[in-house]
Write a structure and sequence with these properties.
The complex is a heterotetramer of chains A (141), B (516), C (356) and D (122).
Chain A (H helix, E strand, L loop, with lengths): L1 H26 L3 H23 L36 H32 L4 H15 L1
Helix pairs in contact in A: 1-2, 2-3
Chain C lengths: L4 H26 L3 H21 L3 H25 L9 H22 L11 H4 L1 H12 L5 H9 L1 H22 L16 H5 L4 H7 L4 H23 L8 H19 L1 H7 L2 H24 L15 H32 L11
Helix pairs in contact in C: 1-2, 2-3, 3-12, 3-15, 7-8, 7-15, 8-14, 8-15, 10-12, 11-12, 12-13, 12-15, 14-15
Chain D lengths: L4 H32 L3 H27 L3 H30 L14 H8 L1
Helix pairs in contact in D: 1-2, 2-3
The chains are: A mainly alpha (141), B mainly alpha (516), C mainly alpha (356), D mainly alpha (122).
């Protein structure tokens, strides 16, 4: 039981964090805060991947010394042949590196849009913007 | 290696063998080149050229999978689970050709619109972004690796947000439309990433074929089910599945005309394709959990979309928004086909996807041309278009009839097959939904046709004296692009063998054994 | 499977950081002052980065610190300065609706956790299949000690290509939406004080630079900026052997230029690195990366198959290939970060004291 | 002759521990100061402790702990970098506050904050 709780605690916290981010995105009408929520949401997803990649007693997946290549030997578990060390799983790290970059790209475009929206409407509150558009719609028809 | 050898290598079958990589890489690299070019018209010519080359490569791919073969291409020559692979079969070869053909047509169509709607200083970057979007969409359609799908989904999505926002010069609402699209699209993409992460957690691999193989061996557990739900919702957002479609109407309405054409005929289709790929190839449609999801979630939602969004379309005053709501309704038809879970249903859904791309592309083109010539944005402003712009009005009418599903148009064929597939499953109530939705389509398309042919053109008022109201310029290339699609919408009624054959082959592959 | 002692201590650290993340996350929901929200986002990212280090994901931590706590926070602050300071509180109805949506989503994930592997499990499918295979194969096939770099730049290089294209798209997007290299004041904004200054207000950075208050900053910056650039190059070329690579180096390089611009003014910066060069750079990186792919095809391999680059020694080919694409990543990332900065900075009106 | 090396080694670890502990204590003092001190300019002093003294002690402790390795060299570089940047950052913050017209709290009676005043008016 304790093993189960300790082994799954991270997931529960990460899920809570994800939902915090999602809640901010959905609930707030402020466009900048929405983007902050998006950032938190995405960062928590990154955490889900990274927590997955951890191996107990592991080290970062970087070899200290590069053994001579070209040998045919295959090693047992993920152990450095020279040092006998366990390494964590590198694949999720790579995926998340990519995802972080994608996240910041989205954020940059989103913020640029926010700046333009503020220039066009004088507000960054979703409700105010909807109201302004609604007034125009009523006036034109 | 000497130079001559390189040329011969590059010129021969080697180039064709690398077509899967090139069909994605060429638009992406060319997008960067377009930015460097700087000059607007030059960038346009370059983009047309690239779209042509891309279309050529996609035809090569289509040619080689016509018989039901599949091609697997290993990026960087790394074998499957380690490296990223591309996977091409009848299903996505059709889609790749569709995207590249629509890119070409949209570009041919779009120059006069872009010239008018976009700041000349931004033309080069605009076309660059457009090419990146094309590359991203093809990249999604061709990928055989779950995470690679995400990366290219984001390439296409981010460029789409930007392209939609470029409509701001016309109407500031493009900005909010783009922002809402960005928020919902990113939530969708993030849900998809969560799903992929859960799949990776359960299987330890990202290669779609490999995931499929491992899932087939093991009993699905709770992680896999959650992954399924997240992927369906994430891709549902991108496909504009019914309650998740709220970003679509504004994004289509306020984007620049050329972008509206391209998005309406490709973006949701690619998302729909990848949804099918995940539902049928990666997960296995036979599992009881999935069947329940199909019967009790997807099918009802599809029918609600078909009816509710058709009603909404009927009440729109803006032509493009009307078409956008109709698009959500049409996505409902495709999802209905998918949710049947049978080969016939899937084939009908795919066929409808193809036909809908043709007719919706044509409709948006016609509306864009009317907007260019006469500044039309509303349905009641269409009055008398049959006299002022007869060719555009004719194109609009034919495509509109195809949207209703009138015989002699391609829209009839796909609806016919859909009804047959639905009856095979015994879902008579779904037939009712199809009929109701089609009647509603008669209503909203009828409004446009009635305005165009039965009402008189507005007499030029004093305010518009300076504009030439009758002798509107209709750019030749744009008209040609429109008529390619219009003729296509009729042609595929008489000879639906190409899309029908591919859809059948694809459906057979998917239902048969995963198809990866 | 028993856990060893070091892992127990590690779990304690993990619990502490996780609780801190939770506190920050909840504070984010409750606050409506945007300045506080943005700063807390920076804190959140930094905490996440620390947590990533404790989970052996050093490359990810590096990037998260540079991007999440660095660039993202700066961009948000910039956007906030151009917009407003306070968010409206959420109406109750929307709060409950959102809570419902979030609750359902959370339950779906929570339900899935019962079949998830234990934290740190070496035998979970994720850690024992493909991920493990990379650890075996990297030595003989790529020959780069940093396995993350090997996967990023060789095994999954096409993902990285897509990533660079995403960055380019973002750069193009900001340039298209905000423009680049133009300084303009906000129109339609009622100037509350000093009507004469708003007409031709120089960017805020110029205003700062002309004040002699900044002599300390200028002296220190002159010492630091070369060091920062040097460090960027170290991160770039040491990426094979330790955490780092083109992306992190690009961000660091861009931050050096941004620091320069903050202290010496936007005009000086534009003179040093003109907007045209930045725009060209955004495309150049993708051209280098994609060009290498086309070259490998021309040399008879597949797209981004570095083995063919040098006929005799595939490992050498891998090294050359990784080196070249990392340069491509560096160029595009640095240029795009700068173009985004130029785009935002070009929009600044003069900052008044009451704005702070 | 007594072999002094083992004792030096022990001393090294003891010193390192002491430095690390001292650094941690100063960190906490700084943090408490940030929370408890009355106004901005006073708080900067507390922040200054965490920025300079505490950090330098921590780094020195870590340098001693890691011995004569590459890590020590890197830590030394970090220390130099912090030595330059921390005071500058504090200076910049104080300068910005000064320029923004923030007045230090001098007497016992604090004038109401403009924001609170507005709240009272409503």
């Amino acid at each position: 039981m304790v093993d189960f709780i300790v082994g799954h605690f991270n997931y529960w916290v990460i899920i809570t964090l994800m939902m915090t981010g999602l809640y901010v995105i959905i609930s707030t009408g402020n466009l900048v805060k929405k983007l902050v929520g998006l950032g938190v949401f995405q960062t928590s997803v990154f955490q889900l991947y990274i927590t997955l990649s951890k191996v107990a007693g592991g080290r970062p997946p970087i070899f200290d010394k590069l053994p001579g290549y070209g040998t045919e030997t295959k090693y047992g578990a993920a152990v450095d042949p020279l040092l006998g060390v366990i390494y964590s799983n590198p694949l999720p790290h790579v995926l998340i590196l990519t995802a972080i970059v994608v996240g910041v790209s989205t954020l940059a475009v989103g913020l640029a849009l926010v700046v333009r929206i503020r220039e066009a409407y004088g507000s960054i509150e979703g409700d105010d913007i909807d109201e302004a558009e609604y007034k125009i719609e009523i006036a034109s028809s | 290696m000497n130079f001559i050898e390189m040329i011969t290598n590059a010129g021969g079958g080697h180039l064709l063998a690398n077509a899967p990589a090139l069909v994605v890489a060429i638009p992406l690299i060319a997008g960067a080149v377009a930015v460097v070019l700087g000059h607007g018209k030059l960038a346009w010519v370059w983009s047309v050229l690239i779209a042509l080359v891309t279309f050529g490569f996609s035809l090569i791919l289509l040619q080689s999978v016509l018989g039901g073969e599949t091609i697997t291409y290993a990026m960087g020559n790394w074998p499957a689970p380690l490296g990223i692979t591309y996977h091409i079969d009848a299903l996505n070869a059709l889609l790749i050709s569709l995207v590249s053909a629509m890119a070409l047509l949209a570009l041919l169509y779009g120059w006069p619109m872009v010239e008018r709607e976009i700041d000349p200083k931004k033309h080069a970057m605009f076309f660059g972004t457009f090419l990146l979007c094309v590359g991203g969409l093809i990249g999604v359609a061709i990928a055989g690796d779950a995470f690679n799908v995400f990366v290219f989904l984001e390439v296409s999505s981010i460029s789409t947000y930007v392209l939609v926002a470029m409509g701001a010069q016309k109407n500031r609402q493009a900005l909010t439309a783009s922002f809402n699209y960005l928020i919902l699209g990113t939530i969708g993409a993030t849900f998809f990433v969560i799903g992929v992460g859960l799949l990776y957690m359960a299987t330890g691999t990202l290669n779609m074929a490999d995931i499929s193989r491992i899932l087939a061996d093991s009993e699905g557990n709770r992680v896999v089910r959650a992954a399924f739900a997240f992927i369906v919702i994430g891709l549902g957002l991108k496909t504009a599945m019914f309650p998740l479609h709220t970003w679509l109407p504004n994004a289509y309405t306020f984007s620049p005309s050329m972008i509206g054409v391209f998005l309406a005929s490709t973006a949701t289709k690619v998302a729909f394709y990848i949804l099918i790929r995940f539902l049928f190839s990666v997960f296995h449609a036979g599992a009881s959990f999935e069947t329940a999801m199909f019967d009790f979630v997807l099918a009802p939602m599809a029918m609600v979309a078909m009816i509710v969004c058709s009603v909404q379309a009927s009440f729109q005053s803006d032509v493009r928004r009307l078409l956008a709501y109709s698009s959500v309704a049409q996505v409902g038809y495709m999802l209905l086909g998918l949710s049947l879970g049978t080969a016939a249903g899937l084939a009908a859904g795919l066929l409808h996807m193809f036909n809908h791309a043709l007719m919706k592309g044509a409709l948006f083109m016609a509306v864009g041309l009317a907007g260019l010539g006469l500044g039309i944005t509303r349905v009641n402003e269409l009055r008398g278009l049959g006299k002022t712009m007869p060719l555009v009005a004719a194109g609009l009418t034919v495509a509109g009839l195809s949207l209703i599903g009138v015989p002699l148009t391609a829209g009839f064929i796909s609806k016919y097959y859909l009804v047959i597939a639905v009856l095979e499953r015994g879902w008579w109530w779904a037939v009712v939904a199809i009929v109701v939705s089609s009647v509603l389509a008669i209503f909203y398309v009828g409004r446009m046709i009635e305005a165009m042919y039965l009402q008189n053109p507005p007499t030029p008022s004093a305010a518009h004296e300076s504009d030439p109201p009758i002798q509107v310029r209709s750019p030749v290339l744009s008209m040609a692009a429109l008529y390619v699609l219009v003729i296509g919408s009729v042609w595929f009624f008489f000879d639906p063998s190409l899309p029908k054959g591919l859809a059948d082959t694809a459906a057979g592959l998917l239902i048969g054994g995963g198809g990866l | 499977m028993g856990l060893d002692v070091s892992f127990d201590i590690f779990i304690v650290i993990d619990l502490i950081i996780m609780s801190m993340l939770l506190v920050v996350g909840i504070a984010l929901v409750r606050l409506n002052n945007l300045f506080a929200v943005v700063m807390l986002y920076g804190v959140y990212s930094l905490l996440a980065a620390i947590w990533f280090v404790s989970l052996d994901a050093v490359d990810v931590a590096f990037t998260e610190a540079a991007v999440g706590a660095g660039i993202s926070t700066v961009l948000m602050l910039g956007a906030m300065l151009l917009t407003s300071r306070e968010a409206k509180p959420t109406p109750a109805l929307r709060r409950w609706l959102s809570l419902g949506v979030v609750g359902v989503t959370g339950m779906a994930l929570f339900y899935a956790t019962f079949d998830m592997p234990n934290f740190g499990d070496a035998n979970s499918p994720a850690n024992s299949y493909v991920g493990l295979q990379y650890m075996y194969d990297t030595i003989t096939e790529v020959g780069v000690p940093n396995v993350v770099t090997a996967i990023l730049a060789s095994y999954r290089a096409f993902d990285t290509f897509g990533e660079v294209v995403v960055v380019l798209t973002a750069g193009l997007g900001v340039m298209l939406i905000l423009g680049i290299g133009t300084t303009r004041t906000r129109d339609g904004e009622s100037p509350q004080s000093g009507d004469e200054t708003t007409q031709s207000a120089p960017p805020v950075t110029t205003v700062l630079a002309t004040e002699n208050h900044h002599i300390v900053l200028q002296v220190v910056a002159k010492i630091l900026i070369p060091i920062i650039v040097l460090y960027a190059l170290y991160v770039q070329f040491h990426g094979d052997y330790g955490p780092g690579g083109g992306f992190q180096a690009g961000v660091i390089f861009a931050s050096a230029v941004i620091l320069y611009s903050l202290i010496f003014g936007m005009d000086e910066t534009r003179r040093a690195i003109p907007a045209k060069v930045v725009q060209f750079g955004t495309a150049l990186g993708v051209l280098i990366f994609g060009g290498l792919g086309l070259v490998t095809i021309a040399m008879g391999g597949k797209f981004l198959d570095y083995d063919v680059l040098t006929a005799a020694d595939p490992i050498l080919g891998q090294h050359v290939g990784i080196l070249i694409i990392e340069v491509g990543v560096l160029v595009t990332v640095a240029s795009v970060m700068l173009s985004i900065y130029y785009g935002f900075a070009g929009r600044y009106r003069e900052l008044k004291d009451q704005d702070w | 002759m007594i072999d002094i090396m083992p004792y030096l080694e022990i001393l090294r670890y003891v010193l390192a521990g002491a430095l690390l502990f001292g650094g941690a204590v100063f960190m906490i003092i700084g943090a408490v100061g940030m929370l408890r001190l009355p106004d901005f300019y006073a708080r900067i002093h507390a922040a200054g402790i965490t920025d300079t003294l505490a950090t330098v002690m921590l780094i020195a402790g870590m340098m001693l702990h890691s011995g004569f390795t590459q890590t020590t060299a890197k830590l030394a570089l970090v220390a130099i970098f912090l030595f330059l940047t921390s005071p500058t950052a504090t200076h910049a913050v104080a300068n910005a506050a000064h320029k923004a017209g923030l007045k230090p709290r001098l007497g016992k009676v604090q004038p109401p904050h403009p924001r609170d005043k507005m709240k009272g008016a409503k």
